[in-house]
Structures are given as C-alpha cells and as structure tokens.
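Hello K.,

You asked for the raw outputs rather than the summary table, so here they are, unedited. I folded two proteins back to back in the same session to keep the settings identical. This is the first:
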Amino acid sequence: DGWEASFKNPEVRSAIKNYALRIVREFHPRYLGLASEINSYADAYPEDFNNYLSLYKEIYDAVKAESPETKIFVTFQWEDLNNLWYQPEEQDYSPGKIKWNQIEIFEPRLDLWAISSYPYITFDNASDIPDDYYSRLLTRTDKELAVTEGGWISEDFKHLTATVEDQEGYLNAIHQQIGDRMAFWIYLLIQDINIESYSKYIKGADLETLGFFTTVGLISENGTPKPALSLWDRFRTLK
C-alpha cells in the first residue's frame, strides 16, 4: 500500500530525527535548519502542519541535549508570509498582512528568525521595496536574523521586468534594513544558470519554474561580473 506521506507517520518522524542527530554528531554545525520555507507548507497542508511542528520541537530538544551551542531554526518565505504571493489553498489572504503567527508558533524553540526573499515576483522594481519591508522583523523579535536564500533577476522574464541595477537595490534594501542584526546571509546564485543544460534533465513546469531564477546570479553566464557583485563583496567583507 506504500507509506503515508505525513509528518505523523512514525517512520517519517524517526528518519528525520535520526538524520538531524547524525548531522549534529558528525559535523557539529553552528547552525541547523530543519525546514525550508515552512510557512508555505503550513498554507498548503494545514492539516499536517501541527504534526511537523511537534516533530520540530522533539528534534530541537534532542539536538540541544547533545549540542546546546547549535542554533536551530526553520526558514520562512518572506513574500508569502506577507501575503504577497497568492496560493489557491490559502483561506486567509490579505495582501500585506504579515502572518506573524506562523513564525511565533515555533517560539521559544527558534534560535534565530530566518527568511528567503525573492521580491521581484511581487515588486516591479527594487526601488518599490518599502523602506520597512524587512525591518518589520525588528519589531517582532530581538533575536538574530538570517537570509537563507534570495536574489533578484537581472533580465526580463515572462511578465517580470528587471535590470542589473535592481540587483543592487535588492542588496541595499536588505543591508540597510536588517544588516546589523544578521547572523548570516546567503545569496542564491553567484553565476547565472545555463537553462539549456538543465533542459536535458527536467521538463515542463519544472523547467519553467527554473526559468524564473536563471539570471539571479551576480555573474553572467559568460563569466562577466554584474555591478551587484562588487556591492555583495563589500557587504560580505564588512566586520
């Protein structure tokens, strides 16, 4: 009959917990992320979200018992958390209203607040990013923050318009609004993707989705640096 794809499945829970503990025992990480963009899962599968939440708490306690210095977290998709990406399964869709409860339900077992952010899906230009778009996080927590993935495309794609200057605007928005509080910051791609090479292995909707990220890189496909690369390097080396 196959296995139950749910976080209430004891075998799923055991496998995830054991894997997390193995990572901790072998690599002694400073940071341990236990889910990516978990608020999107909460929106899509509300009936299973509490099962994940209980598993997270169980793993958090188990890891802390062995490695109390490891900082444990999950990540949240910032545009979705702001109700700026409409998902058909969402019942409470109020654009711009931040679903803080989806973060705060993890407290106090959340050692830092971590987000992913691709605001080019929502805003036409980086200059449209509100001055408090990211700094709203500072009003809800005094913990460290992190950007675990994100970026801005540098060329138009489908209905999206973009320039290399938008990439600089995106980096500046994050740095200026929350840079002083960040534990770490990961930019999605250093170099653009050659989508033709991927087309040999993925097709249809998956290939189309990948297309939304192909020019997020700070270096073009041919190796030419984009203006935002020097800005990123400057931020990266700040003490």
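The second followed immediately with the same parameters:
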Amino acid sequence: MTPAIKAALIATFVFPGGGHLYLKKTLRGALLAAVACACLLFLMTLVYDSAQTIASGILGGSIALNTTAIAQAMDASQVELEAKGGSVSWILLCTWLLGIIDGYRLGRKAPSQTTDGTRQA
C-alpha cells in the first residue's frame, strides 16, 4: 500500500491530521487535529446542554414523561442546535476533507517503500 493511500485512509477513518502524523508532517497534523478537536468539543457541549435542558424539563415537570412530549422537546432543541452548530459542523467537515486530500497529496510526494522495507526515490 502506498504512503498516499495509507495517509488518506488514516485521515478518513481515524482522525483528521492522522495521515499527516503518519507522514511525519507533525505541524500540519497537529493543526488539523486541534481544529477538529475544538469543533467536536463545541458540538458535544451543545448536545450535552440540550440533553440537560430536556432532562431538567422532565424532572421539573414542564415536559411530560411520554415519548411524544420528549420528541417535541427534542425537535425544538434541534432547531437551536442547527442554528448554533451548523457552521461549526461545516468547519469540521471541511477540516476532515482537507486532511484527507492533503494527506493523500503529501503521500504521493513521499518516497515509497519497496517490499523489502527500503525506500526508493
């Protein structure tokens, strides 16, 4: 498997920047990973806050304890989540795609290894 394919697969299935770290491009990899982590942290905070609001409503009695009322509360909070987290989701997606494409591009430039483990130019 070529370094380009490995870098793209690592960036796709592991985490953005993983392919760069595999190719020893630590600064780019760390930057992509940091942006992705910040986006994921922000999105997870939004989801957690939304879940806590719904749980507090159920415990406080403002949301009935049945699936219809809970589903309506979730739908109402989903609009808020989309408003706050929509652009962050796009940033995360673009970061992930950039990591895949750039990792593949850098892997194509890297010298490939032969079957006996030596590198060729």
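The chain has a mean pLDDT of 86.

Happy to rerun anything if the numbers look odd on your end.

Regards,
P.
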